[in-house]
Write a structure and sequence with these properties.
By secondary structure, the protein is of the alpha/beta class. It has 14 helices and 14 strands.
Length: 388
């Protein structure tokens, strides 16, 4: 039996972060030949120990972990502002940054003591304080699931040191792997994907009985952060409506509030905070298209959820990963500017059959590449590669 440790910020499928939801789903694919101890800041699953449906015993240990409030004042705040302005940090400043970013000294002390009993330690994502320090100190044991993309933080000296010391990485997509190898060509890498679960009813999509047929809105689903391209999307919809005299609606659903925007003053904008799974699926099924405007994605669960519901997607062409998925699946549009955004919307509004065809292609792509059975096979092969 293999004994694995997993360092994650949170644990559970109810987590808002795609990285946390992904690692939970991935670990629960493991069978009884594995035993997993999760070291995290918060357990959203409830029990401290349970057996997955595949037979893996999962033990969960929680620790107090720093959060965004750690950067609210003093030296941490100064360092954060400097980092967000793309300034180069000293090693000392990087240490301040990571000791306030999802960091737990208690967790780090615990994993140090228990590392000898673990065959490997899985760290995810790379951008977490405890994960960075554990990777540097215990690198020969660490297999990282980095959720990597080209961003300023990836240039940090401590990040580069962590990647130099770890045993290897598991990537969720081939473009993520390629981006990593361009920067760290020495890395051992493997690609697993993320398991996507789907209903067995193949006709569960817009137009069925008891489903609204209003597909006049665009849907943004996820954290409401400027870094995700949300504000640019709001500007695109505003310009589209003003330029064409249209009433195209944008629904934004996820945790928090839209920054710098008051939806109450904008008739075509609806802000929904943290919908439950049923409401989320209803929003997806009845959208004209799901828009993922972020440039920085290592997978994107939301576009897979749209495709499972046979809804096309629109992604940012400057994101290698989501553009790769769209090109391979032919399940939507990869747009680089406002003109291409308008062209895609016009095509979808004029041709409901096009929307249906794109959604079907996306659905087939997910079934072929990210079914739990397929991902489990890749995961077990990848772990055997590292565990020998």
């Amino acid at each position: 039996m293999y004994s694995l440790g997993v360092i994650s910020i949170k644990w559970g499928k109810e987590a808002k972060s795609g990285a946390e939801r992904a690692i939970t789903s991935l670990v629960e694919l493991l069978d009884s030949s594995f035993q997993v101890t999760v070291y995290c800041g918060q357990n959203l699953e409830g029990p401290s120990q349970y057996v997955s449906s595949e037979g893996c015993l999962i033990k969960i240990k929680t620790f107090r972990m720093s959060d965004e409030n750690s950067f609210s004042s003093g030296e941490p705040h100064r360092v954060l502002r400097k980092a967000l302005n793309y300034a180069t940090l000293s090693v000392k400043e990087e240490e301040v940054f990571f000791r306030n970013l999802h960091f737990s000294q208690e967790l780090l002390d615990c994993i140090r003591k228990e590392a000898g009993n673990l065959d490997a330690i899985i760290v995810t994502p790379y951008l977490s304080g405890t994960g960075i320090f554990a990777s540097i100190e215990l690198g020969s044991k660490v297999v990282m699931i980095p959720c990597f993309h080209r961003e300023h933080f990836a240039n940090f000296k401590l990040v580069n040191l962590a990647f130099q010391r770890i045993r290897g990485v598991l990537c969720y997509s081939h473009p993520e792997r390629q981006a990593l190898l361009e920067r760290h060509p020495h890395l051992k890498t493997a690609v697993t994907g993320v398991p996507i679960y789907f209903a067995q009813n193949p006709q569960n999509h817009v137009g069925n009985e008891n489903k609204t047929t209003d597909t006049s809105y665009l849907l943004y689903l996820g954290r409401k952060e400027p870094a995700k391209g949300l504000l640019e999307l709001v500007d695109f919809v505003r310009a589209y409506n003003e330029g064409f005299g249209a009433t195209l609606k944008l629904v934004v659903a996820g945790p928090g509030k839209i920054p710098l925007v008051d939806p109450r003053a904008i008739p075509w904008l609806e802000d929904i905070e943290s919908p439950d799974e049923d409401r989320k699926n209803e929003l997806i099924k009845n959208a004209l298209v799901l828009v993922q405007p972020s440039k920085n994605e290592s997978f994107s669960l939301v576009i897979m959820e749209a495709w499972i519901n046979r809804v096309p997607v629109m992604v940012n062409r400057f994101c290698d990963v989501t553009t790769h998925f769209v090109k391979e699946s032919q399940g939507g549009f990869a747009v680089k500017n406002f003109t291409e955004f308008c062209e895609a919307i016009s095509l979808l509004e004029r041709s409901p059959s096009l929307r249906e065809r794109l959604g079907e292609r996306g659905h087939d792509y997910v079934i072929k590449n990210f079914s739990p059975e397929h991902v489990k096979k890749q995961l077990l092969e990848s772990l055997q590669y590292y565990l020998g």
